[in-house]
Amino acid sequence: MRSLKRVNKVKPLALLCCALLAACAPMKDDTSTVKPISQQEIVLPKDIKLTSQQWPDATWWKHYNDPQLNALIDRALKQSPSIAVAHARVAQARSDVALIESGTQLKVNAMAQINEAHVSSNGYLGPFANDVPQVSALSGPWYTEGIVGLGATLDIDLWGEHRDRLDAVMGVENAHKLEEKAVELEISADVAQLYYGIQTTDQVMQRLGTLKQSETFVLNSHEARAARGLESHSDAEMAKAMLLTIEQQLSKAKQQRVAFRESLRALIGGGELAEITPMPLPVAQTQLPSSLNYQLLARRPDLQAAHWYVQSSMKQIDAAKAAFYPKFDIKAFFGFDALHLDDLFDHSSQQTNIVPGLYLPIFSGGQLEANLDKTRHQRDMLISQYNQAVLTAVKDVVVTGSALQSLQEEQTLQNEKVSSAAAGMNNAKARYQRGLISEAMANEAQRQWLTAQIQQIEMQGQLVSKDIVLNKALGGGKI
Length: 479
Description:
Elements (H helix, E strand, L loop, with lengths): L1 H22 L27 E2 L14 H13 L1 H21 L5 E12 L23 E15 L4 H67 L5 H35 L20 E2 L3 H7 L1 H22 L4 E12 L11 E10 L7 H67 L5 H35 L6
Parallel strand pairs: 1-4
Antiparallel strand pairs: 2-3, 3-5, 5-6
Helix pairs in contact: 2-4, 3-4, 4-5, 4-7, 4-9, 7-8, 8-9
């Protein structure tokens, strides 16, 4: 008999152990081979000579020493709709963190309930369903039950599932904060590009205006000579064609300036945009760091954001694994429960419940396995996106640095070309004043000089543009 009792005591324990083992069933192994990119792959090619030990400052645009540009970027960083969207994403992520963080906190609810019920004659309260109650304290078949009290629930995070989910959403929050920095960098670079696009266009238009005056004089001279029969009308037609070409260039430049201005106005949040005072184009000074490696990853906010998304996905995998294990919680109630409202607040109507609960995910229909596979695939996708973002960032730095280096070499040659054209123009003017050449030849020398100057200004604008792009590619000094 004792042996039978001992067996009866062992059976429930054995069943519990079997249930726990079933709940902790083995999971599929992670067979993914996707790995984050190594730092050895973040290198500069040896043919890049434009290197130094410096990285851009956080406010890199202030090196251009242009108060107008500083004011425009400050305004854009405060009023741009893109910044407002980035702020909202950060605030939303912060709310998600608070929501997940509340999962393991004690929850207490006040409750009040009135239950008006007609008791079934065939139910478990059948004896109380007659018109004449069998218990003097009850009066059927209608009963009014009242419940008032406090209910509490506490989830016990045994396996760290909630903690992992919290770390995951905190990773997303960090990613959104860095994306906010990436938006700021994007906006500051775009404002600088548009601003110097306007400055470059203004200088080109000024030279084109001077060139138009010169070509107008040439055209008038040819027409006057043709009218007196001193030359054919073909020379006048050629001069007219040249003048029309210049007018086309002026019209295109004016349209481009309007496009630059309106894009800039939209970027800074609309409203009035003060007239931009002409300023000299700055000299491009940004150089490539002699070594990129981890510093590029740290300074580029978009790469840091991608890294945090990967970290978040790792924590989601841990949370998905923890879902395979048993869950434990405690529910409690303290209050009053009475079958008659008149008795609801009597001392004898007090009720206390404490209900520890253990939940074993024995059969989930493949839901847990599918969720784990989903998080692993998501991690692989995010790692691949991160790797591609790193490779693209390195490419942007190298390509922009190489273009800047090439443009600087071209600028040196263009400066020499402008100097030679200026010398030729001065020589032609002197010879014209002494009557050695015609005025048309002197104007042709001036036209060549103005054309070389326009090319020089456009090249300087390209240099500034590439300098801005390089600052952006290097992360704008964010670290």
